[in-house]
């Protein structure tokens, strides 16, 4: 499976979820039910670029709802939405940036959530800085290295995700990270 999308709704709202989604699936040992699971899909552009929300309207009827999209193909994509009672709490999209050459944060809305701290691992920072430093050196831009490293370190210290940046690094597997952070263990 290269990509998938799924909605997760609190168990107490599963009867209402049956009215909105064509199928729902209980998750053993979890307070969530999985709704609308599809594999090998591509998100609508309006969702991808933050023009629309996949969860906000649904949450008016369903209460708390989470949406994840993960793509582990060459395209590497990730979408996360979290809404409750008609309010979009958080939306993150990692996809191809406007330059068409690099992946990065396409959409960032709402307040940071606890699970996001896992994106700011020290080993991830070290690897990202090393690769970018080498890239700058290869292009003869040694004078930009110190400024770049200071910017990245500041963002990592603040644990901040910023539109247009390609750090902290993300990929399609972050969808599974999100699920696990909410106690959703599906036995992939």
List the helices and strands and how they pair.
Layout lengths: L2 E8 L3 H7 L3 E3 L5 E8 L5 H4 L7 H7 L1 E8 L5 E8 L2 E10 L6 E8 L11 H17 L6 H14 L15 H8 L7
Antiparallel strand pairs: 1-3, 1-4, 2-3, 4-5, 5-6, 6-7
Helix pairs in contact: 4-5
Core attributes:
single chain; 188 residues; alpha+beta; 7-stranded antiparallel beta sheet; 7 strands; 28% strand
Task: Characterise this structure.
There is one protein chain. With 188 residues, this protein is an alpha+beta fold. The chain has six helices and seven strands; from the N terminus they run E-H-E-E-H-H-E-E-E-E-H-H-H. The N and C termini lie close together (10 Å). Helices cover 30% and strands 28% of the residues. The longest helix is centred in the last third of the chain and has 17 residues, at 122-138. Strands 2-3-1-4-5-6-7 form a seven-stranded antiparallel sheet, sandwiched between helices.
**What is the overall number of helices?**
6
How do the helices and strands follow one another from N- to C-terminus? Answer: EHEEHHEEEEHHH
Q: Low-confidence stretches at least 5 residues in length (pLDDT < 50)?
A: none
Strand order of the largest sheet: 2-3-1-4-5-6-7
Work out the radius of gyration.
18 Å
**What would you call the shape?**
elongated
Note the beta-strand portion.
25-35%
